[in-house]
Amino acid sequence: MDAKTFSSKDLLDTLFENGILFESxxxxxxxxxxxxxxxxxxxxxxxxxxxxxxxxxxxHFPPGMGRATLEKSGYMKSFPQLAGCVHSFMGGERxxxxxxxxxxxxxxxxxxxxxxxxxxxxxxxxxxxxTVAARxxxxxxxxxxxxxxxxxxxxxxxxxxxxxxxxxxEFVHIGTGEQVRSFRESWLTRGKAMIEQLGxxxxxxxxxxxxxxxxxxxxxxxxxxxxxxxxxxxxxxxxEKPTACLSFNYHQDHFGQTWGLHFADGExxxxxxxxxxxxxxALALFSHHGADVAAWPASVRAVxxxx
Length: 307
Fold this sequence. Notes:
Helix content: 25-40%
Structural class: alpha+beta
EC number: 6.2.1.n2
GO molecular function: ligase activity
Distance between the termini: 23 Å
Radius of gyration: 21 Å
Protein name: Amino acid--[acyl-carrier-protein] ligase
Keywords: Ligase
Shape: globular
C-alpha cells in the first residue's frame, strides 16, 4: 500500500476486503476486527511506556457527558456542527403505537424522541475540568492526568480516518502557563520520535480547530497566530493532505476561567493536552505497512510486539 497514491476509497475497500474493518451502513461508523484492535492495544502500550515517567493520574470517562457540562464548556459556540445529543423515547403506549406505525410506513419517527441530559463526548478531556475543579485548589506544582474515551463528532465521510465514533487517548496538564507549555513541548518531541519508531513519515505543523460560522475564521487565525495548536501529520490516504494523528493544544486559562480551576491564591490555572487519535494511528500503520501485520517491518514489530 503506497500512501502517496492510496485514496480514501481504496484504503477503506482494502480494509473491508481483508476483514480489518466492517461496514455498518453508516459512513464513519465501522466494526473493528481483532487484528485492528490488537494494533491499537499495542500502540496504547507504547504510549503508556513513553508517558510512564510523568506518573500521570489515570481517569477514564464514559463516551457520554452531561449536556449542561458541554454547554458551559463553550463547545456549542465553536463547534455546533460536530456535537451530538442523546435522544430517547419518553412517551406512553399511545405514542409507542404511533411510533411503530410511522416505522411501518417508512416515516421519520425520530420526532417522537426527546433530548436527554446526555451528550456524546467530543474530546476525552472535556469531562475532566469540572471534575478537577470540584476537588478544590490545584497544587502549586500542577496536576497531570491520563485519559481515554470513545468520542463522537458528526462529520460523516468515506475517509476511514474521519470516523464519527473514535477513541482518543490524552495526557492533560493543569498548572501555570510555564508548566503546561513545558509539558506540551516535551510531548511535541516525544510524540514525533514515537511515530518515527513505527516507520511512519510525519511532520509537526501549526494548526487550528474547525471553528464554526463567520467568526470561526477569526478564531482560527488567532489560534494559529498564538501558536496554540500543533498537529502531527501522517499521510494516510494522501501525501498532499496528510491526516492529523496527534494534536498538541495549549488552552491558556480558558478552562481555568470557565470551571473555576485555580491555585490556592485564586490565580486561574492554565491547561494543555496532547491527544492521540488511536484509530488514525492504526490506519496509518495499515496504509504504510500493509494489511498483513505479520509481514510488517521487523523494526516496527519490535516496537509494538517486542519481537
